Amino acid sequence: MAHPEEAATLRSLLDELGPSLPGTPAVTRHATASGHARVHRAGRDRHIGRS
Q1: How many CB atoms lie within 10 A of CB 3?
Q2: Cβ 41 vs Cβ 35: under 8 Å
């Protein structure tokens, strides 16, 4: 962590900006591949190269 002294401030900000409704549904993803297909899933940035 580059600035550990800021962790509490960042957590407070994220809590404030987070969903205000209790029971906010979780994100659900579904993927199906067949044959020689591939499924690539990521929660953020992902770079895929072919080898």
Answers
A1: 8
A2: no
Tens digit of each residue's pLDDT (9 = 90 or more) over 1-48: 588 888 889 888 878 877 666 666 677 788 899 999 988 777 677 677
Taken as a whole, the chain contains a residue count of 51
Q: What are the Cα distances from residue 17, in Å, to 2, 14, 21, 22, 37?
A: 22, 5, 11, 13, 39
Contacts of 48 (CB under 8 A, 6+ apart): 40
Tokens of 21: 């409704």
DSSP label at residue 18: S
